[in-house]
Write a structure and sequence with these properties.
Blueprint (H helix, E strand, L loop, with lengths): L1 E4 L5 H4 L4 E8 L5 E3 L6 E15 L2 E5 L3 E5 L5 E18 L3 H8 L5 E4 L3 H15 L6 H19 L8 H17 L6 H6 L5 H12 L3 H19 L5 H7 L5 H12 L3 H6 L10
Antiparallel strand pairs: 1-2, 2-7, 3-7, 4-5, 4-6, 4-7, 6-8
Protein name: AraC family transcriptional regulator
Keywords: Activator, DNA-binding, Transcription, Transcription regulation
InterPro entries: AraC-bd (IPR003313), AraC_XylS_family_regulators (IPR050204), Homeodomain-like_sf (IPR009057), HTH-like (IPR037923), HTH_AraC (IPR018060), HTH_AraC-typ_CS (IPR018062), Tscrpt_reg_AraC-type_HTH (IPR020449)
């Protein structure tokens, strides 16, 4: 068993858009029953054995390559069905969570398959190591790592109920193409050509897998990149952020950002300057 970490959440930390409340790893997860739920959001990811989650009137198996998301204060039970059931877990909160859930498609408690589970485990290990350092501005440093984890969880978790592995796999060259080129002008025809289909059929695939049109997906990827830039390079002017993530018009960037995130870029950036505090 790895000793769990419960970092002190200061008043300043609690004003961050995201903040860590606890993190750890159980090699032998035992039965956990919470009639009143847990006060924070949780992500738990299986690395060995199998278990089951009971939440919202459903029961789902959880095995390696899968994880489960739990909303605050929601009744749940999880337990091993073959041992050892090993879990990495992280608990967190913050004002950014509602907009993150809306963007990611992870809007309810439940089990999610993952396209790259190892990368998420590596990030949780990095957050755990950071939480033990006691360094200055620890809450902010953990917040930065937590934000990166949630961005990757958005991309990793398979949330489309009507999607299939076959459709997911077919779109992978397009997804990689978008990730490599979303900083420039992209057309639907150009994306469709990557997998040899018509623009109309590409739209059908995106709607089936992501419940989004291709350009909506592109814009969400651009907005994710813009948030990373604002977090990691706070000195950049917003027009430069817009240009670097593929928006020719700063006003259109602001409009798309507010539609997806629920606040303007200025408001999003301003939340990182709360109480005279800056993330370096």
């Amino acid at each position: 068993m790895v000793q769990p970490s419960f970092p002190i959440v200061t008043e300043s930390d609690s004003r961050l858009p995201l903040y860590l409340t606890s993190i750890g790893h159980w090699e032998y997860q035992e039965r956990t029953r919470r009639p009143g739920g847990f006060p924070d959001y949780q992500w738990l990811q299986a690395i060995s054995g199998t278990g089951e989650l009971e939440v919202d009137g459903t029961r789902r198996q959880v095995k390696p390559g899968q994880g489960f998301f739990l909303l605050p204060n929601e009744t749940h039970v999880y337990y091993p069905t073959s041992e050892p059931w090993g879990l990495h877990w992280i608990a967190f909160n913050g004002s950014l969570m509602p907009s993150w859930m809306n963007h990611s498609g992870i809007r309810r408690s439940g089990v999610y398959a993952l396209s790259d589970p190892d990368s998420l485990i590596a990030q949780m290990k990095a957050i755990y190591a950071m939480s033990l350092t006691g360094r200055p501005f620890l809450g902010a440093e953990c917040s930065k790592l937590l934000y990166a984890l949630l961005l990757d969880l958005s991309r990793n978790a398979k949330t489309g109920s009507s999607s299939s592995p076959r459709h997911d796999q077919k779109l992978q060259p397009v997804i990689r193409f978008i990730e490599d080129n979303c900083h420039r002008v992209l057309s639907i025809d150009e994306m469709a050509a990557r997998i040899g289909v018509s623009a109309q059929y590409l739209c059908h695939l995106f709607k089936r897998v992501f419940q989004l049109r291709p350009m909506e997906y592109v814009n969400r990827e651009r907005i994710n990149r813009s948030k990373e830039l604002m977090l990691n390079e706070p000195q950049l002017k917003l027009r430069e952020v817009a240009h670097r993530v593929g928006f020719d018009s700063p006003s259109y960037f602001s409009s798309v950002f507010k539609k997806i995130v629920g606040m303007s870029p200025e408001q999003f950036r301003g939340r990182r300057f709360d109480n005279g505090f800056r993330i370096h």
